[in-house]
């Protein structure tokens, strides 16, 4: 009986360890990962996950344009292909784009061949919109384990995580979201926002206050590629 308990405890510890590894923001088993850029300059990057989506993309672009901000959008391939006009609008507005997988599934147990396909199809949808810059990757739900980092390492593709996520609670109101983003930012921060769906109205409402509040603290808002350059971090090669 004691032996079985020891075995069960070991299995539980292994499962817990793998779960913690899969969600780690600052570590992965293979390749390069960054969640915050080491810099003394007052620079932060606003990043948006998911989409693009009709209507909501236009709202976000309008807010950013009105305040002269360029951001980084980690788009899903399926939505980028389904809504090419919105994807092209992101490119035309001068924003940076990244790969957020094709299907937005958790990729923890995905086979390498499936990972390659998810990346390639999304790259193609983004390139079809005219984007020519490097395409870093952000894992759906921030989850990764073995095969995903291994494939990313083979492609010399940077994994971009984040150190500030003010709307992690989907029930948070606009004021709370804005205050969290402003208070938690530090030089080199990568701020994750979700604003592409109807359920994320609070984030869209908070966006003007986030921008104004960060600037009030002396921060300059830049794209992820510009933030990486300020920290001397190579973005990785531009994929085909």
Can you offer a commentary on this structure?
The chain is α/β, with parallel strands linked by helices. It has nine helices and seven strands. α2 links the parallel β2 and β3. α7 runs parallel beside α8. The longest helix has 21 residues. 45% of the residues are buried. This is Chitooligosaccharide deacetylase. Is involved in generating a small heat-stable compound (Nod), an acylated oligomer of N-acetylglucosamine, that stimulates mitosis in various plant protoplasts. InterPro entries: Glyco_hydro/deAcase_b/a-brl, NODB_dom, Polysacc_deacetylase_ArnD. It comes from Pararhodobacter aggregans.
Known CATH architecture: Alpha-Beta Barrel
CATH superfamily: Glycoside hydrolase/deacetylase
- Mass-distribution shape: globular
Count of DSSP E strands? Answer: 7
Find the structural class using helix and strand composition. Answer: alpha/beta
Radius of gyration: 18 Å
Number of helical segments? 9
Main β-sheet description = 5 strands, parallel
Measured distance between first and last alpha carbons: 57 Å
Low-confidence stretches: none
Provide the β-strand percentage band.
5-15%
The total number of structural domains is: 1
Q: Strand-and-helix sequence, N→C?
A: HEEHEHHEHHEHEHEH
What percent of the residues sit in helical stretches (DSSP H or I)? 40-55%
GO biological process, one term: carbohydrate metabolic process
Protein name: Chitooligosaccharide deacetylase
Pfam families: Polysacc_deac_1
Organism: Pararhodobacter aggregans
